[in-house]
Amino acid sequence: MTVTRGLEGVVALNSRISSIVDGVLTYRGINIDDLAEKASFEEVAFLLWNGRLPKREELDVLTKRLASDASLPQGIVEQLKAYPKNVHPMAALRTAVSALGLYDEQAEDNSEKANYDKAISLTAKMPTIVAALFRIRDGKEPVEPQDGKGFSYNFVYMLHGQEPDPVAVKAIDKALILHADHELNASTFASRVTTATLSDLYSAITTAIGTLKGPLHGGANERVMEMLEEEVGSVDKVEDVITRKLDNKEKIMGFGHRVYKDGDPRAKHLREMSRQMAELTGEPKWFEMSVQIDDLVQSKKGLKPNVDFYSASTYHYLGIPRNLFTPIFAISRVTGWTAHVLEQFSDNRLIRPRAEYVGPTNVTYVPIDQR
Ligand SMILES: CC(=O)SCCNC(=O)CCNC(=O)[C@H](O)C(C)(C)COP(=O)(O)OP(=O)(O)OC[C@H]1O[C@@H](n2cnc3c(N)ncnc32)[C@H](O)[C@@H]1OP(=O)(O)O
Ligand SMILES: O=C([O-])CC(=O)C(=O)O
């Protein structure tokens, strides 16, 4: 047997959802650059789930459903209040999404219609959970979403409990579009492995959230901000800190990618968003530090920033605490995960690779009192 470490380059399945070819990312065949500039997050969600862009009435229906399905069962709100305050929000989100399945009468129904409904319902509720966690930790009551408002508007509204700044709503919407799907990344693969046993959608998304949390995957955005705030701190320290980290063979969070070796097409959008935010807030430091790190890591290591690098400074400029960065990724990626769950159910086969056994053989069992 030949082992391909980390399954690099292994093609595990056919998919019609997103593609990465020659460094170009598309959702259902549409270039991410076009979607980032022209679409809304709701349109992208519809596109991922249905394989085509919505007509106006279809978009209106979905937008309304995403707002009207956003409220949480009271049992979940009580649970969120009871969680220890110091746990990571990704751990709390993972647990809350798992618990949500207990309140859904359709949880065990794996028909296409039921799973489509669950995809919408879960996508609607994830921002409510994240915003509620944020407010509860701050000693505040969760805020209910507003009917008739868009997905990103409601998320920012529920975080701060007041009319959001349109610039912040637009920025979040664009960031959500850029994070929505990404072929067979680790968390999506994990969700498909769970689905392929014919388990249920809540189990698959719980698996995916746990997988996204890791710092080699979605958890990197939080680590980028930690580096900017706690290790670098100011533009004049960039060279020393980054050189030392590279000399110590430490990984620089937000750089490198398993598939993109010549740059992540999403990073340029986030870099531009961070630049604009720096200008708007009159606080250039975080953007300038990021640009210097980017230049240095490229020149010393030949590594380019991935989606997580400039999203960190962008979210920071938006006043979002860094332990919510990965939950925001999850709020978006749940659209991709659920699209993959639907696709897996539509043409399922158990996913079960092999392992090459390299441990000892012919070992004799020794009774316990003779060991
Ligand atoms: C949304 C996302 O998930 S995007 C990815 C988010 N993750 C991060 O930003 C974490 C930092 N990056 C990394 O750890 C890696 O680049 C990964 C996990 C993204 C990809 O990993 P792999 O494809 O397995 O690459 P691998 O880790 O083998 O790296 C290849 C070489 O580049 C180096 N390298 C890769 N990324 C980095 C980095 N960020 N900083 C420093 N060196 C790096 C490795 O040390 C290795 O060097 P070596 O050959 O001298 O040992
Ligand atoms: O595809 C990957 O390996 C990681 C990634 O960029 C993503 O999930 O967006």
UniProtKB/TrEMBL annotation:
<keyword id="KW-0816">Tricarboxylic acid cycle</keyword>
<comment type="similarity">
    <text>Belongs to the citrate synthase family.</text>
</comment>
<keyword id="KW-0808">Transferase</keyword>
<dbReference type="InterPro" id="IPR011278">
    <property type="entry name" value="2-MeCitrate/Citrate_synth_II"/>
</dbReference>
<dbReference type="GO" id="GO:0036440">
    <property type="term" value="F:citrate synthase activity"/>
</dbReference>
<protein>
    <recommendedName>
        <fullName>Citrate synthase</fullName>
    </recommendedName>
</protein>
<dbReference type="InterPro" id="IPR036969">
    <property type="entry name" value="Citrate_synthase_sf"/>
</dbReference>
<comment type="pathway">
    <text>Carbohydrate metabolism; tricarboxylic acid cycle.</text>
</comment>
<dbReference type="InterPro" id="IPR019810">
    <property type="entry name" value="Citrate_synthase_AS"/>
</dbReference>
<dbReference type="InterPro" id="IPR016143">
    <property type="entry name" value="Citrate_synth-like_sm_a-sub"/>
</dbReference>
<dbReference type="Pfam" id="PF00285">
    <property type="entry name" value="Citrate_synt"/>
</dbReference>
<dbReference type="InterPro" id="IPR002020">
    <property type="entry name" value="Citrate_synthase"/>
</dbReference>
<dbReference type="InterPro" id="IPR016142">
    <property type="entry name" value="Citrate_synth-like_lrg_a-sub"/>
</dbReference>
<dbReference type="InterPro" id="IPR024176">
    <property type="entry name" value="Citrate_synthase_bac-typ"/>
</dbReference>
<keyword id="KW-0012">Acyltransferase</keyword>
